[in-house]
Amino acid sequence: MAKILIAEDDSEIAMLERDYLEIEGYEICVADNGQQAATEALNGSYDLILLDLMLPGCNGYDVCRLIRDRIDVPILMVTARSESVDKIRGLGLGADDYIPKPFDPAELVARVKAHLSRYARLTGGGQAEAEVIDLGSIQILPRSWKVIKGGQEIKMPNREFALLKYLAEHPNTVFSKEKLFEIIWGYEYVGDSATVTVHIGRIRDKVEDDPAHPRLIETIWGAGYRLNRP
Predict the structure, then answer these.
(1) Across the beta sheet with 3-7, what order do the strands follow?
(2) Spatial separation of the C-alpha atoms in residues 60 and 78, rounded to whole Å
(3) CB 61, CB 38: distance < 8 Å
(4) Are 62 and 37 in contact (CB under 8 A)?
(5) Are 74 and 97 contacting, i.e. CB atoms less than 8 angstroms apart?
(6) Looking at the domain 133-227, which fold is it?
(7) Fold type of domain 3-123
(8) Is pLDDT at 117 greater than 50 in this prediction?
(9) Taking the complete model, does pTM exceed 0.85, yes or no?
(10) For the chain, what are the domain ranges?
(11) What would the mean pLDDT of 148-169 be, rounded to a whole number?
(12) Are the C-beta atoms of 219 and 225 separated by less than 8 Å?
């Protein structure tokens, strides 16, 4: 069964999350400050992380920034801060979901299950996949879940990789944000298509020579995104 890290300094909320998730059979570890959360996340082989934003010592944004490019598991931010700018900032740092407090414990469990299931499907691989998708200076290796640019591996969280891979498998085709959201995140994900915009921006920062003027992943205004492949 999956192993989950809860990073939460409010003991009552942490125990509520722990109790509901343990009922579902998950193995749970609780960290009550940012430094402990970062250390546990990097060394504990977790399958999913529930990350409060307002942690003492090192806030949730900083923890996410520290761990995102080093571990590739779903990160769900749980916080009382519900402003859209906070959500966009969290997603921009690589979080996979944003759960506002107070929350329905049953909904929390449902989201955890959905993310674990989606992650398993995204990383499950497939024997019929191409060994390499060649985009010139960039190579995508679907079976080993790697992106290479100029001979150097680029670290990409699972949703970024899945989004880039899907666009590369369907080059020169325009997809709306809504369609990409449906394909990569799925109907069970509680969110909106603005998530796609955030992830496209993160991908461009890593693969484009000039992210401000992207040539590989082009925005088709009013329609969506297209990966240009010769």
Answers:
(1) 27-31, 3-7, 48-52, 75-79, 97-100
(2) 9
(3) no
(4) no
(5) yes
(6) Arc Repressor Mutant, subunit A (1.10.10)
(7) Rossmann fold (3.40.50)
(8) yes
(9) no
(10) 3-123, 133-227
(11) 90
(12) yes
